[in-house]
């Protein structure tokens, strides 16, 4: 059997081909010379399998899609608090190239608009990094997200630099406001370079899933940034990634995403999937026409939406086995343990009548336990012990740490429940 | 054993008590006369269990927290497309009472700012509804969300109406722009009435979880709005609910939420939980000081955040059992079946060598199957059959429909896998 | 001989007829039903002679052209300082119906935009005026400016009131901000009524020249407002009268002016002339197409421009006669005495050598003496006396008061110089 | 006798000394190091006499006060139409350093804000001027306005250039929008240099009066720019010169003016006077505190206000002499002949009964005749001749050209009337 997923992507790609709608970016000759009919779609799973459909090997420059990743690098290198002092996180309601600075602080509104991205670029590496050191850090960082060494398209870089007046204006403006230090021209050069890295939709999907997976590239297994940083980047993409259409994108697509003027869009659905598309014809907002359609379709057909409420019939406690002889009760939990599922489990434990002597939690079918669920399960076991129950734990995946149930007692550990 | 969840809420409540920071709303005497020290926290699970801490029975007027629910009623009564023609979904970047109309269309930017909420109010009920019919539809709708009959605080309503000049300005403005029909004063009266319903934090949590659960009130089991409407409301809350701090809220809290000038805030984490807080002292943005702190704390302590990437170690295929005698392979799946988990399962199925005669999917440990996963599993079984395998299905929960595997064949159904 | 001035106006009118460019105002049926080909031009001199060309007797509603006059009435009734607390004087750069309030104070930016005019309307009469008293004060005031009783067009008033949603929005907004007191609907009714008075271009020219002449209607000789009030109104018309084209109007026309949606425009060139035009087809800014052209042409052809620098070859001291016998010197001044001309005169007086015994100032050819010139001439005479000259004064027009030259001496007064 | 004018200025200066209010500009050390107590006032008459009070020889950099003069040079070199394509004339309502570009055209709103002044600077000289040629043209132009060679303060220039990030941002922005050509850095260097010329209040008054006098420096008698250009500059100063306080300045001062961050302000009252002040302590808007006060005082005390309506009692026709013997009537006119005064004169001529044989116009007391008055007087004479009168003209100043009265007849010219 062959998995049907590539066929799904191809089906989506073909259904979203809209022919000659939209216009190529034309402000530099290199972008205007691209084959306008290219169209590729990709997805990367949390464990690093990449599916593609269409012109999957076509290279294009990363452009504004570099912004979330370089923001991640800045957050990693300087810390969230320091970066927040320099760049806000509010949607500006403006187009990508608007100069949206907060009136009081002079901070760029967010790191997804150009002025914010230029500022963010200067925050990669240590405070005293030279231009070359910063460029190197960006290259290494973007390559780590992609899981392969990325290269700059020198021709595009040169063309962009020759017409980068608006970006130069922005760099001087934040320099005037004391938001960035050093030479504004250096910031523009570095930012323009960061936008000129060549990627494919395969790269986009892997980079996207690295954010969705909490900062670890699932192909290389390398941790690129912390889970906290990944979460911050995803949050900012969700509200600011699609510029002046944040609300529309959130309601119709519901996937934190970022597009580039080269025709690419990538999306990261937290803890689920990374997606990439490439089709160079742009709409009036500067987004890929077919790319936007593909995202709308993937969201709908694959149930990929932040606001999905469909997962509701969770049976956290798969069974409660009562040993007729001993009266021992074994609670078999299953699935992912979060606040919601742990709460359900605890509620069932709370129903145990006082007389029961031994109570065992069987986690062998539990797929994951997050921080709050860990605390809740541990608290539940302590309370059971305090109520006089003898507490057992079947935790073959070692999802819970060793704990003291009170009075120096520890749960009876079993490799498996049955 | 008693479940520790109430203790968690109490701990959060106590940790977030900040004493005398913030100011009571004072534009009407009724709000200024509230006991400023009240502080309650609540949570409602997807299956309708409510936990509270603090002054859980204190009543307060729902105020702007009515906006998402009345938006839901308008979407239900007129359809998403019709409502979108009248009210946008983009964050305005402004305070709640700004008059943010889209330059070209004259539409209010979103239904969470007053001008958008006044417009939304006029869209509840059929187009020819009288003022009383519309008021009744709102009352019934809000009561259905809360699962109990809600009443208007007449004193507050009267006070608000006496000083509703700014809302009257907005109503006249959208009337001038042809966005609403009829008498602007009627719209203001209705909107003001909608804001004067009395609720408790218990109500807030139930109303919140009704959205998080896709439109079904888990206490009364009543479907109030469709899952599609609930998703639309949650998306708009996520980008526009906290007015000019949408991005900050998304990154620090990450829970779609809405606050009211009476000091309440509610939050709905899709498919997870509904939350409510009440504490009447307000910050400069008009949000409850302690309420905001409580939400930040709940997000962090309970891992409640849209962008959580922690759930990663999913073992969708719990085991593959190979019958030595027959060579039959049984794939036991577990957890929630989504695009991501179904994809993982299909990948394992794709590894089956051609010679294997019988393949069985055991869904007895699967907790849920969403639309895309259903399609994927069915496609996978069809492909297995097409490859010449004999396909069996253990689906005691009847999560998959009966299907034709091709050639008129159906999978061998078993009640349980083993 | 017949004066050629009417021919000039007719020539300008005919040269500016542009046929079918522009559109009638159509928001109420009454304005849309006007004969679009009407076109009249008028001018009124400082001594009250009115010239007209074209459809001079056609009546139209005064609309926004009432704003400067009602602003004048409010300044008269409440004083400049009080009115400034409620309405600013800065150009808003917006169209007439924009809601431009100053961020900090909530004041309308200026009295020429609707929201400012509505506010201004409420300041006519004493603070405790009833609606009828205020209406009466406005009617009497506008009639005094025009020099004849003006009447309201009831049909227009009714139509306007039925669709006055935007103005009602503004009135509620300034009421919400505490800028106006009382019932916003009353303010809108009064303002709408003020806009519905019927006028002709003859009326416009007289009303205009009453401002240009410092507040005295030159036809009726009635002082309607003080010179200080007139100056304030003219200053605000100069910067705010033509809405978002203040700078363009100042450079190409240079006459403080105000237009109305009925197709009228009036202009007041200080101390020179009042002008009126009427032609109902409007441009995109809501100004009369032919009216704007007529003003441009009048400014150019008749040298009517605030920034005119052409009047330069002033000979203030027409002659200095030296009496051979007595050595007495008589300085004959001529023209209007201002700071500039008095300074010139004083400079000549400063050249008198010490030995001259008697010095006489002959003002018989002086046309006017303003406040600063009066002080300067008196100071000059005192200084001459202090230098030991015997000072004489020929002032048949009694333009200077009786003064003490020092030491109890007074100038020798002569009825005529020679 | 000594003219009292210097005493008036000193009196104003002393009355406006406010001690330590306000702050020195501090963005470069050179401005922060100025003696804060300096305060000088100056005035220059239309015939080139300069009066001063206070520290009249103190030099300071011209800063933003260069903007109107360089605007004048650009208008001279490229024509008004071409410059208008690049820079608008509307008040921006913003502070001096705001980036106010028209949304549709990308033009700076006006030449008085920095971004407009930078653009204007690039329009001095021919289109192909090199940087040095443009700098030279600016230096020569400013020097011609001042009537003496002006020099750049190199220390200030260097300091300004080191921190000119905001101006560099603006230059890049208008370069990006295609408003300026060439290198944005060159534009910033040139503009910064233009702001660094050293002037005194004496220079300011002469430069100011050169505009007020229609472009001719009354000291050197050199025509620097045309009257049309001067008028355009004055109009733009009137609406845009004082940034976000245009309306307030127009109503309280009423003199087209421009201020600089060095503490200078100059004002040009058309056809009347040029004024300059210098006092380095600045208010929150960046205007000299004492300078603003001095202008308010000069406006009030010296009756210097564009909207003055006081000059009203003009007696244009000083006398009509009837020769008993011949019946000849001689109309003696006096003062400045404008549209308003010529109209008065023509009206008197229109009263001549048909039987009168000879009519003479005596212009010997007329101080000036502008274009429209010239046309009107000539038309009046032609009409008199057409009515059968024999027309005489006493015009010792040759203010009217030789004309044909119809039928090849010319007026009888007399050297003097009597």
Automatic annotation (TrEMBL), chains A, B, C, D:
Keyword Acetylation: yes
STAS domain span: 318-394
GO-annotated molecular function: glutaminase activity
Reaction catalysed by this enzyme: L-glutamine + H2O = L-glutamate + NH4(+)
Keywords for this protein: Acetylation, Hydrolase
Binding site for substrate: 64, 114, 160, 167, 191, 243, 261
Record-listed E.C. numbers: 3.5.1.2
Extent of the signal sequence: none
Keyword Acyltransferase: no
Pfam families attached to this UniProt entry: Glutaminase, STAS_2
Segments forming a coiled coil: none
Subunit note: Homotetramer.
NCBIfam families, sorted: Gln_ase, PRK00971.1-4
UniProt record similarity statement: Belongs to the glutaminase family.
This protein's name: Glutaminase
Organism, scientific name: Dietzia aerolata
């Amino acid at each position: 059997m062959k998995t049907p997923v590539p066929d799904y992507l191809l089906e989506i790609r073909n259904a979203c081909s809209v022919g000659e709608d939209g216009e190529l970016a034309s402000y530099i000759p290199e972008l205007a010379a691209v084959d306008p009919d290219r169209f590729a779609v990709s997805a990367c799973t949390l464990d690093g399998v990449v599916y593609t459909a269409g012109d999957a090997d076509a290279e294009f420059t990363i452009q504004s899609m570099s912004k979330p990743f370089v923001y991640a690098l800045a957050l990693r290198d300087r810390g969230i608090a320091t970066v927040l002092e320099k760049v806000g996180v509010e949607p500006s309601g403006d187009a990508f190239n608007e100069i949206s600075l907060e009136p009081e602080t002079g901070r760029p509104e967010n790191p997804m608009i150009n002025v914010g991205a230029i500022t963010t670029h200067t925050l990669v590496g240590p405070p005293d990094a030279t231009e070359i050191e910063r460029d190197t850090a960006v290259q290494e960082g973007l390559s780590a997200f992609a899981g392969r060494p990325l290269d700059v398209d020198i021709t595009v870089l040169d063309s962009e630099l020759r017409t980068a007046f608006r970006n130069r204006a922005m760099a001087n403006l934040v320099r005037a406001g004391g938001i960035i230090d050093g030479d504004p021209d250096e910031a523009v050069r570095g930012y323009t370079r960061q936008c000129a890295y060549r990627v494919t939709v395969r790269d986009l999907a892997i980079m996207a899933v690295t954010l969705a997976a909490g900062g670890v590239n699932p192909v290389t297994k390398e941790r690129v940034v912390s889970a906290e940083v990944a979460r911050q980047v995803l949050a900012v993409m969700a509200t600011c990634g699609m510029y002046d259409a944040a609300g529309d994108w959130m309601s119709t697509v519901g996937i934190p995403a970022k597009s580039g003027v080269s025709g690419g869009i990538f999306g990261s659905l937290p803890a689920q999937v990374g997606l990439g598309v490439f089709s160079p014809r742009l709409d009036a907002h500067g987004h890929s026409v077919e790319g936007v359609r593909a995202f709308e379709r993937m969201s709908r057909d694959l149930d990929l939406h932040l606001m999905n409420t469909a997962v509701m019939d969770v049976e956290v406690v798969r069974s409660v086995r009562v040993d007729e002889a001993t009266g021992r009760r074994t609670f078999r939990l299953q699935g992912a343990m979060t606040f919601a599922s742990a709460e359900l489990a605890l509620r069932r434990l709370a129903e145990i009548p006082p007389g029961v002597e031994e109570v065992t939690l069987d986690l062998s079918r539990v797929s994951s336990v997050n921080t709050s669920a860990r605390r809740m399960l541990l608290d539940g076991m302590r309370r059971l012990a305090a109520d006089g129950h003898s507490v057992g734990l079947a935790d073959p995946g070692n999802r819970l740490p060793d704990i003291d149930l009170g009075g120096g007692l520890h749960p009876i550990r079993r490799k498996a429940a049955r």
